[in-house]
Amino acid sequence: MIHSLSRIMKFVRLVLLAFLIALLVNMGISVAHRPHDVVTHVEVSSNYQQDRTLLIVVRNNLYRSSDGGTSWQRITQGLDYSSLFITDIELSQQNDGLAFLGTLGDGIYRSSDKGLTWQNTSKGLDELAIDNIIVSPTSSKIVLASISDRLYLTQNSGDSWQQVFQSKSPIEALGFSNDGKLVIAANTNELLVSRDSGATWQASDRAASGVPLDSSIVAIESMLGGPVGSMWLATETQGIFQTTDKGKTWTK
């Protein structure tokens, strides 16, 4: 199940990457000629028009561009690739230079210079196999990470972490609302809802909320500038669902 979900998430990321590249081309932004291999993660600076910074992961190597993709630098400072496997990467939307890197077996790394240098910041994590990382869109102090069936929260930009919830099965996806207060996570049977930026959680039955049980959830997203409390949930085979009541009910 976990390996299948991993393949699904890689496919979704590649689809999103293709969309992003098309968008960048339409905006007149240069797309990298190097590296040529498959890109599994991509992050764009929230201040891109000024700093033109991009981060991508290629064959488990992190690359950074500060010229819109014309040239790339393989990032090594603070990262030991001999023991590192990257599972997720997130850039803060606050234009404060913070970025977070999730790994399989080495915990979480943090950068304060938009990905140039990194340091491990895993204090408080019981295990180090990170599945997902999300940063609040309103405060880079608030970051959530999932490890199998557990959710961890930091309120100090990763200086320390604490477990805030354990679900009945591995967490498939999680996402913040655009106001940073509502957080939705999902596993095979439940929707997990927090209305206080991840500090406390309540579990509800997926089917009763309107999301069928016979399809994995592959992404949970909100829209910057969109209606507060509206979020979208993408499934593997059953389409996309939306909530407009802060996660209480979902419609296809």
Write the layout of secondary structure elements.
Layout: H1 2-26, E1 39-44, H2 48-51, E2 54-58, E3 61-65, E4 73-74, E5 86-91, E6 99-103, E7 108-111, E8 119-120, E9 132-135, E10 143-147, E11 150-154, E12 162-166, E13 173-176, E14 183-186, E15 190-194, E16 202-205, H3 206-209, E17 217-221, E18 231-235, E19 240-243
Question: Which short descriptors sum up this protein?
Answer:
single chain, 252 residues, mainly beta, Methylamine Dehydrogenase, Chain H, 2 domains, four-stranded antiparallel β-sheet
Mind explaining what this structure looks like?
There is one protein chain. The protein has 252 residues and is mainly beta. The chain contains three helices and 19 strands. It has helices at residues 2-26, 48-51, 206-209; strands spanning 39-44, 54-58, 61-65, 73-74, 86-91, 99-103, 108-111, 119-120, 132-135, 143-147, 150-154, 162-166, 173-176, 183-186, 190-194, 202-205, 217-221, 231-235, 240-243. A hairpin with a 7-residue loop joins strand 9 and strand 10 (143-147).
Please give the domain count.
2
Superfamily (CATH H level) name of the largest domain = YVTN repeat-like/Quinoprotein amine dehydrogenase
Range of helix content: 10-25%
Topology-level CATH name of the largest domain = Methylamine Dehydrogenase, Chain H
Low-confidence stretches: 1-12, 21-33
Strand order of the largest sheet: 1-2-3-4
Compute the number of strand runs: 19
Structure class: mainly beta
The assigned CATH architecture of the largest domain is 7 Propeller
Strand content: 25-35%
The SSE order reads HEHEEEEEEEEEEEEEEEHEEE
Largest sheet: 4 strands, antiparallel
Number of helices: 3
Shape verdict: globular
